[in-house]
Task: inverse folding
């Protein structure tokens, strides 16, 4: 069997290693450059590779192809493979067949990283032999090749789910759905929604689907489509018979006749959206039969995720907050919604077709000044110039942070929550967040 891997990054190299171990003849092809450390790993495993090209006669003779999530379906080489009827699958799909471990698959437009990390934290604190993979850390394939976990918590993007055919998680979580990455879905929101729901397409009556009952796109899909999985909803707005909800200042769970309650003030994460993330993760923990005491402790000592509403420093009584991971409007909505003092907002980058109007009421209520950090800020300026007293344009992080320092007064917040991708001025959102933190520390 010949396995061709398109993309020589984390998921590609992991898949190549697992493929080799399972007896495939493996070839890795990357149209860009493969990083030196990945090349060394491939050489060490004696796996053939190429970069900065796709040699068609070495690719089109594959029995199966694993495509890295970053490569679109429209790529010429992918089109040719599909025309020839060669299966093109994701790392998750390829790997799942080689492990008997339980998997918890978590997807959503926002909140999936926090929910994934919190779920992993809950299971690990309970002493389970658990791995963390998907969009985070070491690839799922690499871990299945080299580790022996009983359970995996997987953060799954819509791109990874698009390449799944038979994969089924024992527990699936959909945190929420809002328009994102529509450039990859023919600008049709329904295509993107359908992609997220692939997470439950193979589930049966022994599996579970945990979801946000307040989310319009999710509710509509569930009214018009069927899943065999047992449904576990969570809600901020109404009481759930079999699920999770907030009752005044208490988070309450009733799942398969097991009750659990905890004061929201005892949970380390702040903000309404984080209450939802906590309900999702705790629902998983309850289905996995984790002790209530362990759940309580874990929810109160969880540290949160880097670049997601991360408190950096307080300087002269101004709190600097790094939310660089907010790469779409919906994520920034949650960030602004959780601000409870006047805020200087740093926003901008590569716009993915953003509609800023849904932020209008929050900006009016909470934002005293806007600092635009991007190469093209026209849409942001058009949207908000009449709403805030002060708007400044900058083209690097140091200027953004210094300007914010001059504008902010005692008791204010300075929030980096860009609502955009980072590729105009930074390598990625981590680089953007790290530059923000470095600039704040240098004030």
Result:
């Amino acid at each position: 069997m010949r396995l061709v891997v398109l993309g020589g990054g984390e998921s590609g190299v992991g898949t190549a290693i697992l493929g080799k171990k399972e007896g495939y003849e493996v070839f890795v092809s990357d149209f860009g450059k493969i990083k030196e450390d990945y090349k060394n790993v491939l050489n060490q495993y004696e796996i053939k590779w190429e970069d900065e090209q796709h040699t068609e006669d070495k690719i089109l003779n594959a029995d199966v192809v694993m495509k890295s999530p970053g490569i679109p379906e429209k790529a010429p080489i992918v089109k040719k493979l599909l025309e020839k009827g060669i299966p093109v699958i994701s790392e998750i799909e390829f790997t799942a067949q080689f492990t008997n471990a339980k998997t918890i698959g978590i997807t959503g437009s926002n909140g999936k990283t926090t929910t994934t990390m919190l779920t992993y934290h809950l299971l690990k604190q309970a002493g389970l032999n658990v791995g963390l993979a998907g969009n985070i850390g070491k690839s799922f394939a690499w871990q299945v090749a080299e580790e022996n976990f009983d359970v995996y918590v997987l953060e799954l993007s819509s791109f990874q789910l698009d390449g799944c055919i038979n994969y089924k998680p024992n527990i699936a979580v959909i945190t929420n759905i809002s328009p994102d990455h529509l450039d990859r879905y023919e600008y049709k929101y329904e295509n993107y929604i359908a992609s997220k729901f692939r997470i439950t397409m193979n589930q049966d009556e022994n599996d579970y689907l945990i979801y946000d009952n307040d989310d319009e796109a999710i509710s509509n899909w569930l009214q018009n489509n069927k899943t065999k999985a047992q449904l576990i909803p969570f809600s901020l707005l109404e009481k759930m018979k079999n699920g999770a909800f907030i009752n005044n200042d208490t988070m309450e769970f009733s799942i398969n006749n097991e009750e659990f309650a905890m004061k929201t003030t005892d949970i380390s994460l702040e903000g309404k959206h984080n209450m939802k993330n906590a309900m999702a993760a705790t629902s998983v923990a309850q289905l996995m039969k984790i002790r209530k005491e362990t759940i309580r402790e874990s929810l109160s000592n969880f540290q949160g995720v880097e670049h997601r509403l991360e408190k950096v420093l307080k300087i002269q009584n101004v709190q600097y907050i790094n939310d660089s991971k907010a790469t779409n409007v919906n994520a920034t909505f949650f960030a602004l919604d959780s601000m409870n003092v006047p805020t200087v907002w740093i926003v901008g980058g590569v716009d993915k077709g953003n509609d800023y109007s849904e932020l209008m009421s929050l900006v009016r209520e909470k934002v005293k000044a806007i600092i635009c950090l991007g190469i093209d800020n026209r849409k942001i300026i058009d949207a908000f110039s009449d709403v805030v007293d002060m708007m400044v344009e900058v083209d690097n992080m140091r200027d953004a942070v210094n300007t914010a320092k001059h504008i902010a007064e005692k008791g204010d917040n300075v929030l980096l929550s860009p609502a955009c991708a980072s590729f105009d001025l930074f390598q990625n959102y981590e680089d953007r967040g790290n530059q923000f933190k470095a600039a704040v520390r240098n004030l």
Remarks:
- The chain has three domains: 2-89, 93-301, 310-441.
